């Protein structure tokens, strides 16, 4: 029976939504390949998940470096049934002030790394005519994002890309699903330097990453094209479809500016 178990590869699988997705796959008997930058984080997460009775392989890679994304593809020799592109980062601040190298890292991780992995593992899945891909986007991909201009733009790419290849491969046996969370209680905002943003001051309004992961997991297993996690976020996305981009950008600017600028 062990050899018949399916395998899920999850990037960003040691924290937040990625870790919660890993737990869901493990509970359903999937063996796991976890990818993250820090081996110590991988080790502790793997130990936790192995208690659920599955095999867990860990690979430490920085997917913002293209050579590491490519080497990951070469190092994974077993068949991957499900690819979860969860790794992603943002940076907070005005575009004119932010460090360009940091912004390029985010583009490389959120876009280029995702494309490299998707290309490789989808070609592998095609040999069996079966597989699933979950790309973790964001409701940020539906609106221009002052104070996070590059991040919002990368997530717009993820949504467009996922919808396009889903249509291209509609008859392939492989499904593509985009998960669109809103503000979720993870370490993302801390890493992005966003703690001063008005958008995240109300911690109680943040989504639980376990709930977001369950929404994504259920949609993936059902073969749905995309799922917006949370009622409030569904309403926001629906409203954004009716507003011009300039109005959306202004609204987002008001929501994301630093707290100390609120009255300026």
UniProtKB/TrEMBL annotation:
Broad class of enzyme this protein falls into: oxidoreductase
Family, similarity comment: Belongs to the short-chain dehydrogenases/reductases (SDR) family.
Keywords recorded for this protein, A-Z: Oxidoreductase
Statement: the UniProt record of this protein carries the keyword NADP: no
E.C. designation(s): 1.-.-.-
InterPro entries: NAD(P)-bd_dom_sf (IPR036291), SDR_fam (IPR002347)
Alphabetized Gene3D superfamilies for the sequence: NAD(P)-binding Rossmann-like Domain (3.40.50.720)
GO terms, molecular function: oxidoreductase activity
Keyword Amino-acid biosynthesis assigned: no
UniProt protein name: SDR family NAD(P)-dependent oxidoreductase
Matching CDD domains: SDR_c
